[in-house]
Amino acid sequence: MSFTIDKTPPRVTGVTSGAPVYTTPVTISFNKGTATLNGVPFASGTTVSASGTYSLVVTDAAGNSTSISFTLRSASSGDGGGNSAGGSGGESSGSGEGNKMAINMIDIQINNVVYKNFAIVSVKTVNGKKVTTVQLDETKIIKELSSLHDSPIIVIPVQNGSDRVVVLLNSQLAKALDDKNMTVEVQTDNASYTLTANQFDMDAIAKSLGSNTPLKFNIEIANVPDHKVDSIRNKLGKISLVSPAIEFKITASSGGKTIEINKFLHFVQRRIAIPDGFDPIKITTGVVVTEDGNIVPVPTRLVQENGKYYAVMYSLTNSVYTVIGNEKTFSDIQKHWAKTHIEKLASKLIVQGISETSFKPDNQITRAEFTAILVRSLGLHAVGSSADYADVQKSNWFYKAVTIAANNGLTAEGNSNRFNPNEQMSRQEAMVMIAKAMHLAGMDVAISDKEVTELLGAFKDLERLDFSAKPAAALNVKYGVIVGYNGLISPGNVITRAETSIIIQRFLEAAKLN
């Protein structure tokens, strides 16, 4: 039996190497194999209409390849710039069901300076949904970055009505992300996603992939399908859904292996646009939909830019995010001095009542209750490994909250294997936990002995503070979380549910998470 090895390279029509500059859109086809155009997957029969210089590589199953470089200066596409992907020439050829693609160029911004045609976009329709893929021009960007100081900010606007936007960061840019502490912001019509190198554990990612080849990242923003949005509405009950539901996703790949990145070292910022005409007063908070379908609040600020409102959310994980409107009060707080604070945090799903109508604001709070409130205020929901406490069991209602707090460095360090969840929470213990939360939130927690002495010197009961707790107490005073009363900081006093609401609210404001 004899075998014939195919040594015939793929045949390409529509463009040829060494041809003069094309001045009209070109439709490129090939007879076999798969192709990339400037590194982006490319389908046979696609029309390229944007001016630019292109490199086409077609490879068949036997490894034979055909490479063609060509230049297009199309009068119909103008300069190919602007802040929208998939412009006039390419939209018509992107209407097929996954087998046709529109190619265009877009501008990006580096440190607020616009750079023309620094990215190529492909637009296609998959299962009735518009999908845009962005391939950044590594050569051009790396050249510009070489002349800039560290921490450059790259903004990639893709505002063309896509249901899904994917930005590819190939090896050189992924390395620059780490080496120059680069920030990348992807903007779509309804959302934006801001990522910085220090939010990733690059070593852990590389170890998970088990490869020494350079890392590549895909950053994705996608509209959530209607049937999944209906499921979210069912979970919310009486709470209203204010904005579109958006999925944020990042994958890393190396050596043919790909993993999804769902955990970050520091808070990642996301923005979701609020639909026009919606009363901003009714906007309460952003929420994340967890893997098990639960709704968890995340730290959220409302900002207005150019007359449009955005919910700015901060989280340590990827998933589906949306914005809710909710009003909550309790019958027993109507004349209470902390009414406004309690209602605000209850509407944000951070504090909960003893019942649907009762909050019991003056009840003393337990360590488990305080921990659960702090965890919810930070939008933490990934449980991770079990907490090593003998008195915290999986059957306890507080198991998840205490475990999450421990895994995020919010609980006390020491040799004790007991958490004492049902003991009352002292002001000193609360200050220590809040200081740990400040660190997690990225606040400046460096404090000198001199500053500690100055900040705590005004309190007459300073000596009642444990020595090890003084830096934490000073940080709480510095940021206005704890203000004291009648010259006393009262570290041994047990805090109430109302006081907890105010402390958490002040912390979120100081951390700019509210």
Automatic annotation (TrEMBL):
- Residues covered by the SLH domain: 325-388, 389-448, 456-514
Return the Gly residues bias intervals.
78-96
In residue numbers, the region (Disordered) covers: 76-96
| Record PROSITE patterns | SLH
Q: Which InterPro entries match?
A: Cell_Envelope_Struct_Comp (IPR051465), SLH_dom (IPR001119)
Q: Which Pfam families match?
A: SLH (PF00395)
Protein name in UniProt: SLH domain-containing protein
Q: Which organism encodes this protein?
A: Paenibacillus albiflavus
